[in-house]
TrEMBL record:
Secretion signal, residue range per the UniProt entry: none
Keyword Transmembrane helix applies: yes
Organism (species): Actinacidiphila reveromycinica
Keywords recorded for this protein, A-Z: Membrane, Transmembrane, Transmembrane helix
Highest taxon, organism lineage: Bacteria
Protein name per its UniProtKB record: Lipopolysaccharide biosynthesis protein
Amino acid sequence: MSGELLDDGEEVDLVRDQVRQIVRYKRLIAAGLLVGLVGGAYLSLGGADTYAASSTVMVRAATADPFAAGATPDKGIDIGTERQSAMSTSVAETAAKAVKQPVAKLQHCLQVTNPPNTLVLRFTCTASNGRDAAAWVNAFTRSYLDGRESATRTTIKKMVKGYQDQLDPLVKQRNELLDQIDQTSDSQVVGTLVSVQTNLLSRITELNGDISGLRALDTTPGTVIKPGTVPDAPTGPGLPLMLGLGAAVGIALGLLAAWLRLVFDPRPRSAGEVTRAMDAPVLGTLPGGGGRRGGGPQPLLAGDHMAGRLAEEYRAIAFRLSHDQRFAERRRLLVVEPRGSSATAAAVAVNLSASFAEMGKEALLVEADLRTPSLSARLRPAEGHRPGWARNPGQGEGGWPAGLQLPVDTGEYGSFDLVPGRRVPNVARALTSGQAGRLFAEADDPGTVVVVLAPPVLSYADALALADRVDGVVVVCDPAEVRREDLVRVRELVAGAGGFVLGTVLHRAPAAPGRSRFLPRRYGGGHRAAPASAARPDHAARVAPAVPERHPVP
């Protein structure tokens, strides 16, 4: 049961996170809203106006006395049949002759409805102007009533003729009987003739009564309750309603476009997606542009420039790592980025080392980037200290590590040691040499933390060669610049090399002028953030050498 509740909670979190991401596409939603408003205004103002006129008729049956007890107006009326009759071609032809319009045009404009449980027919006619609509609906109404009255009168005439055909022979026979009675003297015969003549007279009287009743019928087909009048305004929704409908449809289209953009966007759009891709928590999010108002390059050492939000974020990350059981056992940390340059990863490694030193630990920063080493030129050495030698002196493969440790001054926060990188002919052999292994093993001493900076995982295999020696890996990335599949691949490569991902540090690079920060830059090219040394005049002459051609990890 608890597992089900947890799954439900995770689903709710996923939906909530997705809604937040959809709402971030404000431009798409605003564009959809604008399209909806323009479409609604066009349909309301640009479309042809139409006018509708209607008339109402109460249908009644022919009756001799409508006021007699028990007389009902619906006697013999099938309102459904009457509705079909009102829409018949014969009615339309008569109405078309009256208004001198084509029959097809009038049939297309007519609509006949019947309110439930009534004998009322409502005729509605639509035209391009109000006068035509009123004239046409009245012509339909009169044509229907005239046709219905004509049909009733025709029926009465046929019935009267039928009764008269029966009556004429009876009257003739009666006249003959009267002649026979006058000419006969036999009383018995006269009685018989009188009896027959009485029966004939009764039948004649009945037929005369039927004929009189038919001729006395009121053939009024119905009553026009409401004649058609010229409408004052065109039909259809007005401008406010169309704008409202357009806005609703436009917002729905904008949300759909934003959802499709989110579904097909290969980049992680939130910290939750980064966590799911890396299967590790997000340790912290660095302020965009180094946390400095107006953007600008991120300083390499936050303590040199500010002691505010950025420095506090680094301290929080260091505290989270120090309380991680896996990191506390080994105290080795590998800081890398997925692709691109290692500028932000270098800043994270330097500031984490400074934060560990502030916590009272003996921090050692190892620059394992042997292709573009630059930390020694960008960090300020401690005053009054001169470079010393490592505990295990001796140069490794290609002269790295050379045993040189530079104390780095972090101001009031203390200092840490830096093992600078240098170019070597065989990077893989230098990173896996015995001297490098002894350097990483310094973290075995109590109170010592070793932070290793390596080139991007998906650009070089250097980080994979260090993963089994350093174990814990912190991945630094900008969610707007990296793909989910890249994060998954980094996690799989690190796990396959014998290490594990401790967490992820996110940062937001400031957008270049005229360029949206949500448009991804091409890996290995495009716009890159300026190095931190460019913000410090005293190090302007010490610029890192050009980046050599890269060979991505297969």
